[in-house]
Amino acid sequence: MTADQNACVAHNVRQLGALDIPGGGQVVVQDGYAFVGHMKPPHGTTIIDVGDPAAPRIVAEIPTDGPYSHTHKVRVAGDLMITNVEQNDRHLLRRAGRIGEIRQTLLDSGKDPSDGAVAAELGVAAGDIAELDAALERGYDDGGWKIWDIADKAAPREIAYVRTHGFGVHRFDMDQNYAYMSTEMEGYLGNILVTYDLADPTAPREVSRWHIPGQHIASGEVPDWSGYRNRLHHALRVGDEMWAAVWHAGFRIVDVSDIAAPRTVAAHNYHPPYKEPTHTVLPLPNLIDGRRIAVAIDEEHARIPGQAPANLWVFDVTDFDDIKALSSFHVSELASPWAQTGSRFGAHQFHEHIADTLIYCTWFSGGLRIVDVADPFTPVERGSFIPPPRDGFDAPQSNDVCVDERGLIYLLDRNAGLDILEFQG
């Protein structure tokens, strides 16, 4: 298959409109407006009027506070908008903490402590060491989240800034009453769930914390994993439950009927043998043949030769003590003309409000895949859309998707661009 840089690859999906904007991490749509959190500073959050999907129009752009944070996630409930604040390039900069130890070890061994030698130990380029040293010297204490009044979409107004700890907030959920943050906190290893009361949105109040055993190292817990492999990616509220993806530890279901005392009621981990981490998990809204069904999607994170790309999973969660995998859904690399460019190909995220049995998934250079799990043993693709790469990029990188109340689909690329689509299946 030969890639046409100017052509999309689509099945049962048509493009209604598009907007060239900087790459984004999340898009949500409410009442005719799309809210986009961008991947890289200085681009923070963009508010777009999508009332006419053929002619989307930017109404507000909020820059980041500076070059060291990104605000790539966004949520909206009524006239409140929440954005995260997280250290930009955190995966690279996290390695800075080992530089002193590595240099000392090299010196003690009579070896070369140069930047090149340190870089080889860290697995980074020699040119990255100066940046890591600068980040270590500078420190970072801006991580957290912000609340905005968006009654006037053209003039969003910051009304609260909650600083958390470490690298700050990654993903999160919110409703009219609470914010459910995945964030680093002092004394914990990796991100945990921290819930805040939004009764006074100018002064959010922490009401509870939840973590997986082994994370609270300040209390003496000892993890049985290495590094940050097991941690909260994010948790989504469904009724009195939080559905929590915990990366290489699979997923947990948390009872929050008492919001001040979250309680784990189910756990399922399929890593190993599967290599890619759990990104998002949610139950379907209705039973299928008397079974409660959930879907989980893994993130294509660090492609390992010989291993299948990340995929979508279907689980029977009827019995919390006996969760079973029923099936999985994969996309062949042959389905995308841009799968062999070296860019990521594989699953990442699905629309986080499931209305029926259709799951709208992003697949990086595989674009959008619309998967029907009406038969939970045999998921079937009903539609797909792969946008062409924007100028300057070798491949599309479809990162997030939202479906609005009209049924229109908003497909966000982490490199550049937003596509507004319609499913014709």
How do you describe this structure in short?
The protein is mainly β and 425 residues long. 8% of the residues lie in helices and 44% in strands. It contains four helices and 30 strands.
Descriptors:
mainly beta, Methylamine Dehydrogenase, Chain H, five-stranded antiparallel β-sheet, 4 helices, about 45% strand
Polypeptide structure, described:
With 425 residues, the protein is mainly beta. The protein is built from four helices and 30 strands. The strands form seven sheets. Strands 1-27-26-25-24 form a five-stranded antiparallel β-sheet, with no helix packed on it. Strands 7, 8, 9, 10 and 11 form a five-stranded antiparallel β-sheet that branches. The protein has a four-stranded antiparallel β-sheet with strand order 2-30-29-28, with no helix packed on it. Helix 2 (99-108) packs across helix 3.
Strand line-up in the sheet with most strands: 1-27-26-25-24
- Molecular shape: globular
Tally of extended strands?
30
**What is the arithmetic mean of pLDDT?**
95
Enter the CATH topology name: Methylamine Dehydrogenase, Chain H
Helical run tally: 4
Helix amount, in percent? under 10%
**In what range is the share of β-strand residues?**
35-45%
Largest sheet: 5 strands, antiparallel
**Number of individual domains:** 1
Structural class estimated from helices and strands: mainly beta
Q: For this structure, what is the CATH homologous superfamily? A: YVTN repeat-like/Quinoprotein amine dehydrogenase
Distance between the termini: 25 Å
